Amino acid sequence: MHENRVEFEVYGDYALFSDPITRVGGEKCSYQIPTYEAIKGVLHSIYWKPTIIWIVDKVRVMNQIQMESKGIRPIKYNGGNDLSYYTYLKDCRYQVRAHFIFNENRPELSSDRNENKHHNIAKRSVIKGGRRDIFLGTRECQAYVVPCVFGEGKGFYDDVELMSFGRMVHGFTYPDEAYSETTKGNLSVRFWNAQMQKGIISFPKPWECVGNNERVIKPYSMKQFGFDFKNIREVEKEEDELVPEMYQNV
């Protein structure tokens, strides 16, 4: 009946959208623009529920693309430290437009498919700056979220007709968000040929990344939710007594 769309601006001093090719030697170098999966991670930090799947529609790059290298001492798996150089994006600011769909792979949560409820919770979570910590790509790149109207304000690349960034990782498909026989029961990675038109990146939807743009990594099992698994519980009526009367019907 209504658009379940959210729009917000996410910004931070640094971002690291890792190019997997550069990670083989222990060092990391960021893509020039955010990946679909990284923005989806921001949406999960704002509001996540297994009932819904976030779809990233567009991202608008507001600031100039700049990079900065830093010496990092990551912890090794077998103990001790190593010395690496990580190349970050700096002074990052993006406008995001996204919407959600219901997760058809979870019939056990069909009773929770209330579009109006989830949309209102998501909008309130954007206003509050998210439910969990926001970061751009990696945990050390702390970021912040504020509501906005997508397209408002001056962006650095508004007058640039087209920029191409080549073949990039689009994101990962987990079995609970499978959309085809190939992705069911598997962990898959998606690729796409990234382009930006007048500062706006229009992402293809996950199921539009087909053919050579989709690869299975390994078999993967789906986590189940439900009362039998003891990871979902009903809201007890007695809890209403703890809520001020003015908020009980919200």
Account of the 3D structure:
The structure is a single chain. This protein is mainly β. The chain contains 2 helices and 11 strands, in the order ββαβββαββββββ. The strands form 2 sheets. Strands 1, 2, 3, 4, 5, 6, 7 and 10 form an 8-stranded mixed sheet that branches. A 3-stranded antiparallel sheet has the order 8-9-11. Residues 238-244 and 246-250 have low confidence and may be disordered.
Short key terms for the protein model shown above:
250 residues, mainly beta, eight-stranded mixed β-sheet, three-stranded antiparallel β-sheet, 11 strands, 35% strand
List the helices and strands and how they pair.
Layout: E1 5-15, E2 28-29, H1 36-46, E3 52-61, E4 67-72, E5 84-102, H2 115-127, E6 134-135, E7 142-147, E8 163-173, E9 186-196, E10 200-202, E11 214-219
Parallel strand pairs: 2-5
Antiparallel strand pairs: 1-5, 1-7, 3-5, 3-10, 4-5, 6-7, 8-9, 9-11
